[in-house]
Specification:
Oligomer: single chain
Strand content: 25-35%
Structural class: alpha+beta
Order of helices and strands: EHHEEEEEEH
Strand order of the largest sheet: 1-4-5-6-3
């Protein structure tokens, strides 16, 4: 799937994210995905605050993580988030790379669906408030 937009975030695995063996605890990879997802949404000026102002919330309805190789305490990593679907739902793909070698350590995706805040109704198409923010990227393709 071709990405409409990709962002990358550089991080270092902190001590509080690892287990007693110095390996990143599996649940923290979703946290790293979230950091990159926030940067991706901020790039189009549709972060969580803007979502709420527009009248929509976007809960995660599905996630998947594939652990290719462990990351370790103090390892420098690059987390990439790519918007690959935006009609009817948001699908964001993630990849985590070791910064030094460029080797991929983790991959996955998340899917979010729009819910109208006032009615709590699931939207079956992407709201105009989000589509408008994608216009410059769609026109550039």
């Amino acid at each position: 799937m071709k990405a409409l937009l990709t962002v990358a975030v550089d991080m270092e695995v902190p001590f509080f994210d690892v287990d007693s063996m110095g390996i990143t605890w599996h649940g923290n990879y979703l946290k790293y995905f979230e950091v990159a997802r926030c940067k991706l949404l901020e790039k189009i000026d549709y972060g969580y605050r803007q979502m709420m102002v527009s009248g929509y919330m976007w809960p995660i309805v599905d996630t998947q993580v594939k652990y290719v190789k462990p990351t370790l305490f103090e390892q420098k990593i690059r987390v990439e988030a790519s918007l690959v679907e935006w009609e009817n739902r948001l699908k964001i793909q993630y990849q985590i790379f070791d910064s030094a070698s460029g080797e991929r350590t983790t991959k996955g995706y998340s899917i979010q669906a729009a819910v109208e805040m006032q009615t709590k109704e699931l939207c079956f198409e992407t709201p105009l408030a989000f589509r408008e923010r994608l216009t410059p990227y769609l026109e550039a393709q």
